[in-house]
């Protein structure tokens, strides 16, 4: 539980220190710019497709493919598109994720134990999203430049001392799962699209001026700890619970 105790102290000091840098956030801080000069055109197309669906979230076209016309129009659209990211705000948060199978004990004579799944924190944060990873790296770089004690003390992805020796016991008919309680730096960002007319968004909205804004959230892990969760949860229900090949802790006297 020391990680949770440390997290409470960290969040308190983090909140206090945030007040000292409010002038830094009177204006949103630029973070990253994406265009065809520094990113693959297919990544830009994917972002445009997401923006298209978010802008025109109607039943008939919510998942419609963004049509950019012939090759020349496609190129003009992609080359003319620019996406910028600005830091709007940040805070420390706690998140809970599954770190083992959901299990139920169906043997009345034995206690069943569950342990954390190997490399669960690595699997949890695996991503193939290049833009998200670049945003995360830029956030970490920018944070490290603040030179404020409580911020410089933060070590991101500090999972070296995770309590993998945790064992959670389940009585007969009990259901449970190990959770990873994680302390994250949550960054709220403004994502701003500059979209040229060649992209054809005006076909849906003739009043579209070419700029689209939305809020996105990036969570960067700091540290965490495994905890036992007995009983049902969002990720652990009797209908989903595993009961085969259990690990037994001890024999019960009957």
Secondary structure blueprint with pairings:
Blueprint: H1 2-20, E1 29-34, H2 41-55, H3 71-80, E2 82-98, E3 103-104, E4 110-114, H4 120-124, H5 130-144, H6 149-152, E5 168-170, E6 175-194, E7 211-230, E8 247-251
Antiparallel strand pairs: 1-2, 2-6, 3-6, 4-5, 4-8, 6-7
Describe this structure in words.
This protein is an alpha+beta fold and 254 residues long. The chain has one domain (2-251). The protein is 27% helix and 31% strand. It has six helices and eight strands, in the order H-E-H-H-E-E-E-H-H-H-E-E-E-E. The protein has helices spanning 2-20, 41-55, 71-80, 120-124, 130-144, 149-152; strands at 29-34, 82-98, 103-104, 110-114, 168-170, 175-194, 211-230, 247-251. The strands form two sheets. Strands 1, 2, 3, 6 and 7 form a five-stranded antiparallel β-sheet that branches. Strands 5-4-8 form a three-stranded antiparallel β-sheet, with no helix packed on it. The two termini are 34 Å apart.
